[in-house]
Amino acid sequence: MAVQPIRKPTRLEPWQDPSQTPYVRIEKVTKAFGDFIAVDDVSLSIYRGEFFALLGGSGSGKTTLLRMLAGFETPTEGKIFIDGVDMAGIPPYERPVNMMFQSYALFPHMTVEQNVAFGLKQDGVAKSEIRERVGAMLDLVQLGRFAKRKPHQLSGGQRQRVALARSLVKRPKLLLLDEPLGALDKRLREQTQFELVNIQEKLGVTFIVVTHDQEEAMTMSSRIAVMNHGVIAQTGTPTEIYEYPQSRFVAEFIGSVNMFEGRVVEDQSDHVLIRSEDAGCDLYINHAVAVPSGATVGVAVRPEKIALSKEPPAGSDGRNVTTGIVREIAYLGDVSIYLVELKTGKTVRVTAPNLVRRTEMPITWDDEVYLTWRPFAGVVLTQ
Amino acid sequence: MINRLRRIGLWGRGAVLAVPYLWLLLFFLVPFLIVFGISLSESVIAQPPYAPLVEWLVDEDAGTTKLQLLLNLSNYLRLGGDDLYVLAYLNSVKIALVTTICCLLIGYPMAYAIARAEPAKRGPLMMLVVLPFWTSFLIRIYAWIGILKANGVIDNLLQWSGLTTAPFELLYSDWAVYIGMTYCYLPFMVLPLYATLEKMDPTLLEAAADLGCRPWKAFLTVTLPLSLPGIIAGSLLVFIPSVGEFVTPELLGGPDTLMIGRVLWNEFFANRDWPVASAVAIALLLFLVVPIMIFQHVQGRQAEAER
Predict the structure, then answer these.
(1) What's the ipTM?
(2) According to its UniProt entry, what is the function of this protein (chain A) (predicted)?
């Protein structure tokens, strides 16, 4: 899992700029269905032009949160502001948002053209303008040729694009997307991810997308809010979420990770030393943590940040170095995944790029190997 | 080997398909042809009360034997020529149409409400719709007599409330027929409507609302067109049997409630004119075949759309 965000870094991101006012403000919103609390005291600020992902497993409350923004559910407590306006009591058909539904919800009795024109007709837009805008939108999603078809005559990918065109044609300031790529196969999904980002940048619309697919969230979004049991576990850019997870849940939910348990033995301003029975060595991490000495903490190390070698690494001080035996190798073409059983009995996952073409691998089953990683590789997790 | 299997498969398919076709042939086509035959014969006072269509004419003088086929078209000409039949047909259509519209107006909100009810409540609610079928049809019509007659339930209620002073009789009028028939055929409207409305994806209405459509307009532009197959199916299920309805107008209708079912009964049992009765039946059947064919056509198109 080494997907880099494709977004180019801009001057100052809006969420870092105190002079910016958020476009969407969710304030202490709770939604309960009977005894079940779907969304629990969530606060979020989303800025104009963002591609914001709500990421979580099923039942994490992400869809409920999206439906509250669209107006299909009312918060049990808390307030939602869109463009500074309190959305309480405003029905869906009067909100300045459009939604792309997970099932696409295309009207089966209307043609592609009529589906896309539907929203404009409700606003009483002139016929000639409707024709023009629908045509332009269908061209944007490359469906001009299919304007006269009915939804059941289209493939899944085409339907997805009709749904996108229909939700964008009204030029909403805010577009909500519920698992927009969920029904597509992998190849089409990847291609569509880039299309979505391009369209979003071209139109300058704020996107809030709900997804359970972490890869999708990582590639497309400017920021991600990871949700778990109705609570936001962490909000941040894809890099922050991946490299600096704040909790075990986030570390384990995004990508794969090796978790070591340990005790803090040395806590300085520039580093921390953790003695780990699990890892079979001391863990040296070049950032400070605010925990008392002797506290038990977890250390997360990503599989791609661990190097494997048959020789002991040169100049090692015995920290961040441990040994084990290769138990499983999965060859994925671009990378290989090694499962290494440490002396302590713990199994560690290591991914290594296949840099050279080889039929015979230098490291193979049952080899005894050294595992090393750099001081920046580990992240201390106290939660 | 494969060819043999295929031949066996074709045989098997043919055998399975033959059963319903045989059934239709024996119990639909053959009776239809018999009735059609009678409709073309002449009425005689005999047992059975119609002349045979085909006769062997043996002329001993000429020494010839002839097979004579006599087709009597006068029965059909009578249908067109006599106002009684034309009026009865038109009146039947009028009553059937009013019944269908009443069933639709009452049945649509019912079906909609049931389809939108909590899933756990839908079963019991549908049960309530079907429940009247568990009582004999005749008993239910007799119950309506008790409700509609002078000094019946409605009349007493109206007098008690002071809205009317004189006894008021609904029974033996077209109104009573409308009420009785709407009551009888309502489930036939609710069932297909419920089936289509229940199948409808509720997110379509959310999508409509999301695109700026107000609820009543969403109903007109999304729900109504999508429930059209149910409306057509329900309307035909009510309209077709309503046209030929006999029992309800006989029991609830007045002496001037003229319906083709009554005319048919009269011709058959009172006048013992089987040929004319058969002609009335055949004309009614042809008259109903057209809506049935429309129904089939719509169903076929719907099935195609769903594929």
Answers:
(1) 0.82
(2) Part of the ABC transporter complex PotABCD involved in spermidine/putrescine import. Responsible for energy coupling to the transport system.
